[in-house]
Design goal:
Elements: H1 20-24, H2 54-113, H3 119-141, H4 153-175, H5 184-219, H6 241-251, H7 271-284, H8 301-314, H9 324-337
Helix pairs in contact: 2-3, 3-4, 4-5, 5-6, 5-7, 7-8, 7-9, 8-9
Length: 339
C-alpha cells in the first residue's frame, strides 16, 4: 500500500445560504413558528438578525475546522508511511550488522584453510567460528521483520543455519583426521562435502533472501534502502577437493595416494554420501512425485535414481555419478526452484 499523495484529498466548501433570489425563483420560504408554538400566518414575531459579519465568521470557522481535519489526516498518513520506512530501515540495519559479522567469519575461514595449523588447533578454530555463527543465528531469531518480509526472513535464518552446520561438521571432520585410515583424496572429498553447505548458504542468502526483498521495498515506496549482501565463501575454489588435499598435506602430513578426487557413485558409503543425500533431499522436496531419501550414508538404488533424476532435469548425462558438474547443477536447481 502506497503513501497518501497531495491529490488524495478533496476540499468541499459550504454552499451559499438562501438569498432573496432563491425565493424569487419560486423556491419555498420556510415557515417560521410563532412564539406560542403554532405555525405563524406571516405576522408572527421574527428573531432578530445576527450581528453583522457573524454569518461570514461562522462560515470561515467551518472552513478552518475542515482544513485542520484534512491536515491532521494528511500528517497521520505521512506519519504512517514514515513509520513503515523506519520499520524497514531498522530491520535492514540489524540484518546488515549480522551480514558484516558473518562475512568476517568467512574471511577468518579463508585464513584458516590457507594456514599450516595442525588438525587439532584447526578444529578448535573452526568450532569457534561455528559458535560465532550460532550467535548470529540466535540474534537473527530475535529480529522482528515488517509484516511482508516475515516469510522471506526464514531464508535469512536458513542461510545462517547452513553456516553453523557446515562449520561444525567441518570442525568435527578435521578433528577426526588423526584416526583417518583412507588416502587424502577420499578425506578431502568428505571435507569438501561438509564445506559445500557454506557455499550453499551464499546462494540462499543472496538468491532466496536478498533478491526477493527488493520488490517489497519498491511496493511500499521505500526504494532508497539497500538489502545487505553476504558472501561467506569468497572463492569457491577455497572449499574444493584440491584445496582440501593441500590443507591435509600441510596440516597432517597424510600421504596423498593420488590426487584424483573420490566420486560418489553406487556402492560408495560414508559421510560424503550422507551429505549428498541431505543436499539432494532439499531439491527432491520441490519436485512433485519424488520422495526424499533416507539419509543412511549408503549410495544405493534410491540415491542412484534420485541423482539421475537431478541430472536429467539439469540436462546432464544421467549416469548417477556425483562429480563437480552434478553438484553445481544441484545448486542451480535449488536457486531456480525458489524463484
Amino acid at each position: 500500500m502506497g503513501c497518501l499523495g497531495n491529490d488524495d484529498l478533496e476540499f468541499d466548501f459550504f454552499s451559499e445560504p438562501e438569498t432573496a433570489d432563491t425565493v424569487e425563483r419560486g423556491w419555498p420560504r420556510p415557515r417560521m413558528p410563532s412564539l406560542d408554538g403554532r405555525a405563524g400566518n406571516g405576522r408572527s414575531a421574527r428573531r432578530p438578525p445576527p450581528p453583522p459579519g457573524l454569518v461570514g465568521i461562522g462560515r470561515l470557522a467551518g472552513v478552518v475546522a475542515f482544513v485542520i481535519v484534512a491536515v491532521v489526516a494528511l500528517v497521520t498518513g505521512l506519519g504512517a508511511c514514515q513509520g513503515a520506512g523506519a520499520n524497514y530501515a531498522g530491520y535492514l540495519s540489524q540484518v546488515r550488522t549480522l551480514a558484516h559479522s558473518s562475512d568476517r567469519a568467512g574471511t577468518a575461514l579463508t585464513s584458516l584453510l590457507g594456514s599450516s595449523l595442525k588438525s587439532a588447533p584447526l578444529a578448535r578454530r573452526l568450532q569457534d567460528l561455528a559458535a560465532q555463527e550460532q550467535h548470529a543465528y540466535d540474534q537473527a531469531q530475535l529480529l522482528r521483520p515488517p509484516g511482508p518480509l516475515r516469510q522471506v526472513d526464514e531464508e535469512l535464518l536458513a542461510a545462517l543455519e547452513l553456516r553453523v552446520t557446515g562449520l561444525a561438521q567441518l570442525a568435527q571432520a578435521v578433528a577426526g583426521l588423526g584416526s583417518a585410515k583412507t588416502g587424502v583424496p577420499s578425506v578431502a572429498e568428505a571435507l569438501a562435502a561438509q564445506a559445500r553447505l557454506l557455499s550453499t548458504s551464499d546462494i540462499v542468502w543472496n538468491e532466496l533472501y536478498r533478491i526477493p526483498v527488493a520488490p517489497w521495498l519498491r511496493a511500499d515506496r521505500i526504494g532508497n534502502l539497500v538489502v545487505p549482501e553476504s558472501r561467506f565463501v569468497a572463492n569457491p575454489q577455497l572449499v574444493s577437493v584440491t584445496s582440501f588435499i593441500r590443507l591435509l598435506q600441510r596440516a597432517h602430513g597424510l600421504t596423498s595416494g593420488g590426487t584424483t578426487a573420490l566420486l560418489l557413485k553406487p556402492g560408495v558409503t560414508g559421510g560424503a554420501v550422507k551429505s549428498w543425500q541431505r543436499e539432494l533431499n532439499r531439491w527432491l522436496r520441490t519436485q512433485p512425485g519424488l520422495q526424499p531419501l533416507p539419509v543412511d550414508g549408503a549410495f544405493g538404488a534410491l540415491t542412484d535414481a534420485a541423482t539421475k533424476a537431478l541430472q536429467q532435469a539439469a540436462g546432464l548425462t544421467a549416469d548417477g555419478i556425483v562429480g563437480p558438474a552434478t553438484r553445481q547443477a544441484l545448486a542451480q536447481q535449488l536457486a531456480r526452484s525458489h524463484h
